[in-house]
Amino acid sequence: MLSIYENDTIAALATPPGQGGIAIVRVSGEAARTCFDALFVPAGKQTVESHRLLYGHLYDENRVLIDECMAVLMLAPRSYTREDVAEFHIHGGEQVARQALNALYTLGVRPAEPGEFTRRAFLNGRVDLSRAEAVMRLISAQGEQSARAALRQLTGGVSSFVHGMQAQVTALAAGVAAALDYPEEISEEEAAGDTARQARALAEKLSAACDERAARVLETGFDVVLCGRPNVGKSSILNALLCEERAIVTDIPGTTRDVVRGSVTLGGAKINLSDTAGIREQAETVEAIGVERARRAMQNADLTLLVLDGSAPLTPEDEALLRDTENLPRAVLLNKCDQGMAFQLPDVLRVSAKTGEGMDALRALIADKAHLAGELPLTSARHMRLARQAADKLLEAAEALEGGLPLDLAAIDLQGALELLGGITGERVDEKLLDSVFSQFCVGK
Ligand SMILES: Nc1nc2c(ncn2[C@@H]2O[C@H](COP(=O)(O)OP(=O)(O)OP(=O)(O)O)[C@@H](O)[C@H]2O)c(=O)[nH]1
Ligand SMILES: [Mg+2]
Asked: Same domain, yes or no, for 223 and 347?
């Protein structure tokens, strides 16, 4: 992707397509200024200055009026891409935006590729790779929690974590390199002993920074599955949580046949709810398939809500479900508490989908379980893959050192770890290693 980058001028609609109060057409590249002057005429005696929002009119290449608008020119390098950037804040609606873009295309501007403005910001050194990715994540974040994670990445949380790790690995590599270069001054054993232990500690720190499950929750949401035997009120609880009549509710057992889904935001986290077919043995064909799907959904859920009818005695089916879900992340709900309780169990939540009793407590419980790992340093799949590979390299280095293998081997592994870490922020690190060796160690004094 990066290699096809050409230094031409690009344009795109920067706001979502469709109707809206305003739409912003953004242009970046050498011709941005010419395009601005060619198409936009400021009203009155306003002078065109960089970073000044102007009111005026936008015309096409034939001087036909497109829109009355605001426009701003942001000259390099003080712009998002570090190139000259022009923005036209036009009226929302696809027709106006299309006309504006077409006018730009006739001036030799080409449509921007997805993410190309941010790619330019990276290539021009304005943001590192992890921050560029963070912009993408922030744009597509669903739920406050994932937006926060993206924002932390954007403000350099990932970069500073990675830089911290790089500094520590560099220090190890520098020690090994010094022992290699000056064998008469530093013994191999001396270099190997502590380095192996530290390499293991750093590997552990890197692995601890990755949590696949937390990352997935941030990315796609926390999966909650409602299960239980037929007619206990699963669909009623789903509807109550979603505040809409999503699933069909009747007093006939076996109403829900397939998995019914819906999402809500609770405590800033995106929660994906699934209502399932009531689980029972004597189900006919269609229902039996639904029961099978319900069981599968339970296995993959981040949280299973086992719903029991609290107003009627426990049945053998309830007991079987209590056993089946024992080792899953689960919470047990006693529904229909408005009709009085027929039995007691420890650690359950009493709710009524009918009266709403206990529903706030249920929301709080789900939000609490979903609120995990918000502060993890690495939450993107690419970062975690590189961090894990770097951790492996560090372990290899430790093993080589402990096994008394030549120091060169450990040095290569440490260098490998550095390169992998550099891959997260998109930089090269060989220079850094050299600098570190000669600036921090006065071995040859
Ligand atoms: N009194 C009372 N009735 C409830 C409550 N929740 C659900 N019901 C009733 O119980 C019946 C079954 O509700 P559903 O939500 O369809 O139950 P379900 O578990 O989804 O049932 P299946 O889809 O058949 O497995 C309906 O008549 C609901 O009105 C409650 O909290 N109190
Ligand atoms: Mg149902």
From this structure: yes
How many domains does one find in the chain? 3
Containing 10, the helix (H) or strand (E) segment is strand 10-13
pLDDT tens per residue, range 92-142: 877 898 899 999 999 989 888 777 788 788 778 887 777 777 776 666 666
| Same domain as 165, residue 98 | no
Cα(60) to centroid of ligand 1, in Å? Answer: 62
Q: 232 in ligand 1 pocket by Cβ < 6 Å?
A: yes
Nearest partner of 219 among 328, 133, 294, judged by Cα:
133
pTM recorded for the entire structure: 0.57
Q: How far apart are the first and last CA of the chain?
A: 47
Secondary structure of residue 142 in the 3-state scheme = coil
Please state, in angstroms and rounded to a whole number, the distance separating the CA atoms of residues 59 and 57.
6
102 alpha carbon – ligand 1 mean position (Å):
57
**Closest approach atom of ligand 1 to CA 230:** 25
Report the separation in Å between the CA atom of 346 and the middle of ligand 2, taken as the mean of its atom positions. 25
* Model pLDDT for residues 48-64, shown as the tens digit of each residue: 999 999 999 999 989 99
